[in-house]
UniProtKB/TrEMBL annotation:
Family in the record: Belongs to the amidase family. GatA subfamily.
Organism of provenance: Candidatus Doudnabacteria bacterium RIFCSPHIGHO2_01_FULL_50_11
Native organism taxonomy: Bacteria, Candidatus Doudnaibacteriota
InterPro entries per the UniProt record, alphabetical: Amidase, Amidase_CS, Amidase_dom, AS_sf, GatA
Catalytic class of the enzyme: ligase
Active site as annotated: K79, S154, S178
Domain Amidase residues, every copy: 24-471
Gene: gatA
Record's protein name: Glutamyl-tRNA(Gln) amidotransferase subunit A
C-alpha cells in the first residue's frame, strides 16, 4: 500500500495481519521525511534512533498478540509546544533554544503509553503566535499542495507533516484557530476540543484560558482514535474536566439524519472569498442531502470576537512570557561570552531583546498595555464581559440546533510573505474561529474541496463536550465526499 493512502486505522490492520511490521512502517516514514522535508520544513528535529528503537519494542507487542491500542507502532509528530522529556523543545522560538524539558506533557505521555512513536518535533509560529508558520524563528513551513503557499498556523508543521505523509498524525494546539486553520489549508482533519477536555499540562502556555491541545489527522476516524487517547482528566491541570471520555471511534457511523445544523449568518460576511463561499454552500447542501436540517442562526456578539480575543490573548501572553528571563530556561545572553552584561536586570532585558521575535514582542507590549492600571477596566475587564456575551450567544444558539456549520478561513492558503507586512490582515484569517475559543466549545475542520488546487476546510462546531456528535457529523460528510483521498504531489 502506498504510504500516502495509509491511515492510522489501515496501518493498524496491516500490522495486526502481519502484512507490515512496525520497523518497516517507521522506516518508510523516516525515509519519506528525508525525501520531502527539505522542501517542506515541517520538522524542527527528527528523533530517528529513538523512533527505530521504539519500533522494535512495539513490534514485540504485536508479535505477542498484545498491541497496546490502535495507535501502537503508529508514527507521529508533536508540535514543538509539547514538552517531551529529554527532547529539545523550543516552541518555535529562539528564546527556548537548547531547552530540554525534564518532564513530558500529559498528552505526550498518554500517546507514548498507547504505543504511538514520535518521529520528531514539528515547526510552528513561535509560541503559537500566528496563522501561517512564518513567525517561526527557524524558518517557515511550506504547504505540501503548493510550496509557494503557507500551510496555515500556528500548527503549520503538524498540518504539513500529516498532509505530506511524513507522519500518520500530529498534535497541535488551538488558542484562536491554530489546529483548524492548518487542517483546512492542508486538506487534513483538525479537532479543537472543548476547553478542559484535553490536558494542557506540559504544553507551553500561550493564553491559558484559551489553549486547547488536539489532533491533526488524515481522516475523521483517525481523529477519533487520537482524540480518545489524548482526552481525559489530569490532576496536573486545574481546568481539566472530570467528565468521562466516550470512545469516540466506536459510534462514528450514526449519520446526520434529522440533525439540526445551524448556518451562522455572521460567517457569511463580505470578506469571504467567493469560491470559499461556493464550497461551503456545496458542503451544506451535501449535509442536507444526507438528512440534516439546515436552519439559519445568529450570534450577534461574534462581531466583537476578534477584538476581544486580541485583548485577552495578548494579556495572557504578556504574563505567560514573563518567565523567559534568560535565567530559568533556554537562551541566555549570559552564556554568550562576547557580550558583557553588567547587571542581572540587563541579563533579563538583553536575553528577552535578543531571544524573542518581533511578534512575541508586539504581543507582550499590547498585553502589558491592556493590563496596566488605568487601562485594565477599559480593555481587559470589558473584554472579559464581552467574552461572556459570546459564550451565552453560543449556548442560546445550541438550544435551537445540534451543530453549527460554516467556513474555517475566509481565504484559501495565501502566498508566503503575502501577509507578513500587515499583522492585521493576518489576524483576520481567524475571524470565523476565535469566537469558538472564547466560548470554549469544540470545533473541527474537515476537508471540503479545493479552490485552484488549494485545500478548503468546512468548520463544524458543537456544544460543550459534544465532541462525539461533532465527529459523527464530520464522518458522515467525509465518507460522502472523500476529499482526503486527494493527496499532494510532493
Ligand atoms: N492565529 C491566532 C493568533 O495568532 C491563533 C493562534 C493559536 O491558535 N495558537 O493568535
Amino acid at each position: 500500500m502506498p504510504l500516502q493512502t495509509l491511515t492510522i486505522s489501515s496501518a493498524h490492520k496491516l500490522l495486526l495481519s502481519k502484512q507490515l511490521s512496525v520497523p518497516e512502517l517507521v522506516k518508510q516514514h523516516l525515509d519519506r521525511i528525508e525525501a520531502v522535508d527539505p522542501k517542506i520544513h515541517a520538522f524542527l528535529r527528527v528523533q530517528k534512533d529513538n523512533a527505530l528503537m521504539r519500533a522494535q519494542q512495539s513490534q514485540k507487542r504485536y508479535d505477542a498478540g498484545s498491541p497496546r491500542s490502535s495507535l501502537d507502532g503508529i508514527p507521529m509528530g508533536h508540535k514543538d509546544l509539547f514538552c517531551v522529556q529529554g527532547v529539545e523543545t523550543t516552541a518555535g522560538s529562539n528564546i527556548l533554544k537548547g531547552y530540554v524539558p525534564p518532564y513530558s506533557a500529559t498528552t505526550a505521555l498518554k500517546l507514548e503509553e498507547a504505543g504511538a512513536i514520535m518521529l520528531g518535533k514539528l515547526n510552528q509560529d513561535a509560541f503559537g503566535h500566528g496563522s501561517s508558520t512564518e513567525n517561526s524563528d527557524f524558518g517557515p513551513t511550506k504547504n505540501p499542495y503548493n510550496l509557494s503557499r503557507v500551510p496555515g498556523g500556528s500548527s503549520g508543521g503538524s498540518g504539513a507533516a500529516v498532509a505530506a505523509s511524513e507522519v500518520l498524525f500530529a498534535t497541535g494546539t488551538d488558542t484562536g484557530s491554530s489546529i483548524r486553520l492548518p487542517a483546512a489549508f492542508t486538506n487534513t482533519v483538525g479537532l479543537k476540543p472543548t476547553y478542559g477536555r484535553v490536558s494542557r499540562y506540559g504544553v507551553i502556555a500561550m493564553a491559558s484560558s484559551l489553549d486547547c491541545p488536539g489532533p491533526i489527522t488524515k481522516t475523521v476516524e483517525d481523529c477519533a482514535l487520537v482524540m480518545e487517547t489524548m482526552a481525559g482528566h489530569d490532576e496536573h491541570d486545574a481546568t481539566s474536566s472530570t467528565k468521562p471520555v466516550p470512545q469516540y471511534s466506536a459510534r462514528l457511523a450514526t449519520g446526520v439524519k434529522n440533525l439540526k445544523i445551524g448556518v451562522l449568518k455572521e460567517f457569511f460576511s463580505e470578506g469571504l472569498h467567493p469560491q470559499i463561499l461556493e464550497r461551503t454552500k456545496q458542503a451544506l447542501a451535501k449535509l442536507e442531502l444526507l438528512g440534516a436540517k439546515l436552519e439559519e442562526v445568529s450570534l450577534p456578539s461574534c462581531d466583537y470576537a476578534l477584538a476581544v480575543y486580541y485583548i485577552l490573548m495578548t494579556s495572557e501572553v504578556s504574563s505567560n512570557l514573563a518567565r523567559y528571563d534568560g535565567i530559568k530556561y533556554g537562551y541566555s545572553v549570559e552564556r554568550q561570552s562576547e557580550i558583557k552584561i553588567p547587571t542581572l536586570q540587563a541579563v533579563y532585558e538583553e536575553s528577552r531583546r535578543l531571544g524573542f521575535g518581533a511578534e512575541a514582542k508586539l504581543r507582550i507590549m499590547l498585553g502589558t498595555f491592556a493590563l496596566s492600571s488605568g487601562y485594565y477596566d477599559a480593555y481587559y475587564k470589558k473584554a472579559l464581559q464581552a467574552r461572556e456575551l459570546i459564550r451565552q450567544d453560543f449556548i442560546r444558539a445550541f438550544e435551537r440546533c445540534d451543530l453549527i456549520a460554516g467556513p474555517v478561513s475566509p481565504t484559501p492558503p495565501f502566498k508566503i510573505g503575502e501577509k507578513t507586512e500587515n499583522p492585521l490582515s493576518m489576524y483576520l484569517s481567524d475571524i470565523y474561529m476565535t469566537p469558538i475559543n472564547l466560548a470554549g466549545v469544540p470545533a473541527m475542520s474537515v476537508p471540503c474541496g479545493f479552490v485552484d488546487q488549494l485545500p478548503v476546510g468546512l468548520q463544524l462546531i458543537a456544544p460543550h463536550f459534544a465532541e462525539e456528535r461533532l465527529l459523527q457529523a464530520a464522518y458522515a460528510y467525509e465518507q460522502a465526499t472523500r476529499f482526503y483521498e486527494q493527496v499532494p504531489n510532493v
